[in-house]
Amino acid sequence: MNKSPLLLALALLFLLAANLHLCCRVGVDGEWTLTRYSLADVRRGELAAREAAEEICPHGARMPQLEERFTLSFRPPDGSSRDLSARILARVSGVSQLYSVKADGYSFGTVADRDRLEERLRAALYSAVPAGAMHAYFARGVEITPVYGRSGSAMSPSDMALVVAQVVPAIFTDREGQRVMG
User: Which are the contacts of 177, defined by CB distance < 8 A and separation ≥ 6?
Assistant: First the structure.
């Protein structure tokens, strides 16, 4: 009896098993993507989204319906717990993606529309540009970071730009980079 084919088949089986990954696809309220997550990332993402939703809406955050489908794949999982928690939070009623505004060590609050805020900040800067100035910027950078918060709790971009422009000094420079006083 020849053991070579049996050993070859066993070696191939071990090779295949060593390269297989248990992956999980997650449906959020019936919406599926092709992203594959590890089981640990699914649990971390679910937990992070649940805790964030409860912190943002302590009295009744309705979590979306989650479904899991498990597969074996030769490719490793390509999703992260952060991506999954963002997908889940996007479907929680009462929770919205907002943008936190910070500058010079101050936290000014949140806005819902980042593009409109940036437009209003530019308008606030350029409305104060003195003669001879070519460039304008805030003395300390304005940080705009995505966060999740209670829906309807954000300031308007116009009001936020006014507050930032009043607190954070602007710097104006000419073509050579020399400061121009206003």
Answer: none
Give bridge partners of residue 68 from the DSSP assignment. 26
With CA atoms as reference, report the closest residue to 85 among 60, 51, 56, 57.
51
Report how far residue 101's alpha carbon sits from residue 119's, in angstroms, rounded to the nearest whole number.
14
pLDDT in tens, 32-65: 999 999 999 999 999 999 999 999 988 877 899 9
Nearest Cα to Cα of residue 95 among 57, 46, 142, 40: 57
The model's pTM: 0.76
| CA-wise closest residue to 176 among 135, 131, 147 | 135
What are the φ and ψ backbone dihedral angles of 76, each rounded to 5 degrees? Answer: -70, 160
Q: What is the length of the chain?
A: 182
